Automatic annotation (TrEMBL):
This is L-rhamnose catabolism isomerase. Residues 97-302 form the Xylose isomerase-like TIM barrel domain. GO terms for molecular function: isomerase activity; metal ion binding. It holds the Pfam family AP_endonuc_2. Keywords: Isomerase, Manganese, Metal-binding.
Amino acid sequence: APDLPIAMELIESHNTAHREVLEDDYDHLKRRLSRSGVDADKIKQRVKRLELATPTWGAGVGGTRFAKFPMPGEPTNIDEKLEDCAVVQQLGRNTPRVSPHFPWDWTEDPAALKDKAAALGLGFDAVNSNTFQDQSDQKRSYRYGSLTHTQAPTRDQAIEHNLACIEIGRKLGSKALTVWIGDGANFPGQQSLSKSFDRYLDSAAQIYSALPNDWFMLLEHKLYEPAFYSTVISDWGSSLLAAQELGPKAQCLIDLGHHAPNVNIEQIVARLDAAGKLGGFHFNDSKYGDDDLDSGSINPHQLFLIFNELVEAEARNSARFHPAYMIDQSHNITDPIESLLSSAEAIAAAFTHALVVNRDELAAAQDANDVMAAFQTLRRAYNHDVRPLLALARVEAGGAADPIALYRKSGWRDRKAQERRRASAAPGIV
Ligand code: PSV
Ligand code: MN
Ligand code: MN
């Protein structure tokens, strides 16, 4: 049996204390939903199958741009990060895999790491390469680019790193490589906008050709930062062009914080699905830019509309629908375990709201150009309080009725503060 971090008895007594109120609330929701022709039990079964990957880099306290304020007991290596991700999975039950980032999570013994994760009840999701910062042991600098650098030896070094990520990912049981590069220009004239894209295609093709057959290469675009004038893979258009050029295993990944302000992300979802290129998500929320705030903390309605498109996309073509769902957040001032639990629930809530939309009613209103009826169909779904359904789904899967309350009661962080070495204040994340 896996070596789970939180005592089962603690979870059981917590759930027993919540059971009566929870069932009462769920029955109420079930009656409400059945009045709109929706079967709550069926939705609950579907929600139980939602799987989100947690980011190893999100398990530590993030210091993105200015500073990092270390927290006693935060994880400082991959083993400790796995333990914390295991707490999130044990209590929330919808984050069964971890997405590692290399070289941050580098290990000489991937097989041992895989075993360690399995003992904690975890598997591995997409591996992420990092050529957006220099490492102390590397020969050539990425100051002027990595996969798109003007000089072939630097591009080769970046390609090699991606190949090493695939190798380690194979041993961990991953099925995808996520590639985000910061390459671009800070000044007009600094680089050829077309040649840099050509170089990207050339380098990416070499990585693509090393992909195992059952893997995907997820291309992640981002509008700006660290390049502030132009970025080589800046938007879904560039990403789609590249994915189409590379081949069927190349797909586009949407990070919710990587767009121009006010961009209609749900429409991008629909377009990428139409092109058969919807590869995955980095969930987070954003107010101004690539803020990496907690999912659903700023704009939960947008998250709902994104899942509304995802539910439609799956219904249109379930055979090819397999987007990888990952969380990509930077937890600067909260306990990362609490942020991940809260975010995973917000994502599951958006999915549930989308599942309770009456699709026949929506389609009929759209066909009849009954604008208000169409809008009200979405609104009704969004207005349901689905928390009892989420909580019961968790409890039935062995998780906690109120994960954050139980996590606090478990004293996990205080215990780890005694055991773990203190994190340094140096910012380590882009
Ligand atoms: C870049 O902003 C990004 O969203 C990419 O996914 C990176 O891998 C991640 O953040 C961590 O820096
Ligand atoms: Mn991202
Ligand atoms: Mn980002």
